[in-house]
Write a structure and sequence with these properties.
This protein has no helices and five strands. It has strands at residues 11-14, 27-29, 46-49, 60-64, 69-72. Strands 1-4-5 form a three-stranded antiparallel β-sheet, with no helix packed on it. The chain has a two-stranded antiparallel sheet with strand order 2-3.
């Protein structure tokens, strides 16, 4: 896959989270810039990584180390 920004070849891998307390972690996309104090995700947010035991729930991703771009799909068929 070629990078959408610089058009160089991207490497395939996975996005992952490293924390033993799984039920407290998730990554969201949100339309608002994050603030310093936040106790919950905004209403319009979308969970893109919800880690599960054994490394499950991580989306496949492509990274461009040249321009520091990462692309991924969090569709169920792209989760491991």
């Amino acid at each position: 896959m070629n990078c959408p920004d610089c058009h160089k070849e991207m490497k395939h891998g996975w996005l992952a989270m490293f924390n033993p307390i799984l039920w407290l972690n998730f990554v969201v996309w949100q339309p608002l810039k994050p603030g310093y104090v936040r106790f919950s995700a905004p209403k319009e947010s979308e969970r893109v990584i919800v880690p599960k035991a054994g490394g499950r729930g991580c989306p496949k991703a492509w990274i461009c180390t040249a321009c520091k771009t990462v692309t991924f799909s969090y569709a169920i068929e792209n989760l491991d």
